[in-house]
Amino acid sequence: MDQHQERVDRIARAISQLKALLIFILVAITLVPIILLYGDDIMKGIDNELQARRQTVLITEELPKEVFWTAPDPGSVKDVSLQAQIAYGKELIAHTAKYLGPKGIVMQISNGMNCQNCHLDAGTKVFGNNYGAVSSTYPKFRARSGTSENIYKRVNDCFERSLNGKGLDTLSREMQAIKAYITFLGSDVPKGSVPNGTGLKQLAYLDRAANPENGKAIYNAKCVTCHQADGQGQMAADGLEYTYPPLWGPHSYNDGAGLYRISTFAKYARFNMPLGVSHSSPLLTEDEAWDVAAFVNSQSRPHIKVPRDWPDISKKPVDHPFGPYGDPFTEKQHKYGPFKHILEEQKKSMTTAQK
Predict the structure, then answer these.
(1) Using CA atoms, how far apart are residues 350 and 329, in angstroms rounded to an integer?
(2) Which of 187, 197, 222, 252 could pair with 126 as two cysteines, CB 3.0-4.6 Å apart?
(3) In the prediction, which pLDDT does 1 show?
(4) Considering the domain boundaries, does residue 38 fall inside one?
(5) How many domains does the chain have?
(6) What is the model's pLDDT at position 57?
(7) Is the residue at 41 inside a domain?
(8) Are 318 and 312 in contact (CB under 8 A)?
(9) Which of 8-22, 27-41, 82-96 has the lowest mean pLDDT?
(10) Which of 330-337's residues contact partners 24+ apart within 8 Å by CB, and which partners?
């Protein structure tokens, strides 16, 4: 009985092997003609695919990572008194109103906003209107004043315009601390250079005028939670400073501030707002940024008399909202755009003047 079973198993194995052999022969008969006819093309295709993948990997590996300015470490300062001065300067930038606002514990010379409201993370955020290139580029000539300005002048411009207040005495402890902090932030930047990531990221002009009505809808959808429906922001629990600053009204920046130019506001909003977004992952589209800038800057705010601004009117930016101008365009177009026509006219005027 065992011998019979063994014979049956051998026959079954033989049949199974025969089936496998037949399948192999059938596959070979099918593939051989294809390989003979198209073998070179098949191998070329495989080789090309492998080469393309290899090149993609090489290109990816060779692409340099974009490098942005970063603030130096205050702990690197060895001088104890200088370290304390820098720390106080940073505190003044971050919490200006606590010390210098309407209820300031040092003096009362500003509107309640903090420098940090415009210069994010105490002036250190990449493309957050930071101070990285201030020390390396000042003193410098500025067309707005028509003079060479130092850091003291630039700081006091912000106090008088963005903070709608009074300038600091240049010899005061507070001004010296702010200057020390700003200078420290640029201490690793070579004189005359502007590192990548400083100031604000550029934004292309629209082909149309910015639209305040569109901007109102955007504001209500994406800005109102922090800045409130009336644009007056939210005061902190201590009543000394704003958690979220007012964007218009008596406690906001005045019409001589940089943010009152909608190109500046649009760049700032596009790459930094709502609070927490970054230049690499903005929430607002370009159109939304321009329109919300138009809406915010169409609202009422304090006026500052600056009759000496722009002594050479041909140097006025395209979006400076107050005349006179060296071109035929209206104040409305200079405020809201479209700006490309104004730029073209300015280029023609410059070309004519150079001849």
Answers:
(1) 16
(2) 197
(3) 47
(4) no
(5) 2
(6) 45
(7) no
(8) no
(9) 27-41
(10) 333/209, 335/262, 335/297, 336/209, 336/210, 336/211, 336/212, 336/262, 336/294, 337/205, 337/206, 337/208, 337/209, 337/210, 337/262, 337/290
Asked whether residue 180 falls in the same domain as residue 253, the answer is no
Burial code of 142-165, b = ≥16 C-beta within 10 A, e = fewer?
A: eebeeeebebbbbbbbbbbbbbbb
On whether the CB atoms of residues 292 and 352 are closer than 8 A, the answer is no
pLDDT digits (tens, 9 = 90+) for 240-260: 999 999 999 999 999 999 999
Measured from the Cβ of residue 127, the count of other Cβ atoms closer than 10 Å reads 23
CATH of the domain at 305: 1.10.760.10
Which is nearest to 246 in space by CA: 159, 127, 163, 338? 163
* CA-atom Rg of the chain in angstroms: 33
Could you report the per-residue pLDDT of 57-79, keeping only the tens digit for each? Answer: 444 455 578 999 999 999 999 99
Q: How many CA atoms lie within 13 A of 259 on its CB side?
A: 27
Compute the distance between CA of residue 344 and CA of residue 355 in angstroms, rounded to an integer: 17
Structural domain for 275, as ranges? 212-349
Q: For residue 322, give both structure tokens.
A: 């107050």
Say yes or no to pLDDT of 315 above 80: yes
Helix runs in the chain, H state only = 2-62, 80-94, 96-100, 120-123, 134-137, 151-160, 173-185, 212-222, 224-227, 262-272, 286-296, 331-336, 340-354
The per-residue pLDDT for 48 is: 62
Residue 2 lies in a domain: no
Model pLDDT, residue 61: 52
Last residue of one domain, picked from the residues 170, 185, 200: 185
d(CA 117, CA 272): 11
Long-range contacts for 231-238 (Cβ within 8 Å, ≥24 apart)? 231/296, 231/299, 235/112, 238/98
Instruction: Return the higher-pLDDT residue of 94 and 8.
Output: 94
pLDDT score recorded for residue 346: 85
Lowest-confidence pick of 56-65, 91-100, 313-322: 56-65
